[in-house]
Predict the structure of Transposase.
Amino acid sequence: MIDAIAWKFQIGAQWVQLPEKYGNWRGVYNRLRMWSADGTWERVFTALVAQADADEELNWVVSVDSTIVRAHQHAAGARKKGPRPTSRTTTPSAGPVAD
């Protein structure tokens, strides 16, 4: 089951493309959803991290290359319907005129 889930996320394929050797894709998908909902994956991850830390095999170095992280122009607040109209000048109302 874990191999099937790992295969799906490593390859990036759709669930229906899961090889037959892993069984029915719906069963694998449902098991993944159940384990995610009941916290099984979180407990497994926590235990693995604790074991790796105890064995001094854990290295917390993280590298992020911002040159490959791009946001769409609309994510930065750009208008979707062209440039903003310029401010209109305020014209006085047609009230009484001072003599």
Q: What stands out?
A: The chain has three helices and no strands. Helices lie at 2-11, 25-37, 40-54.
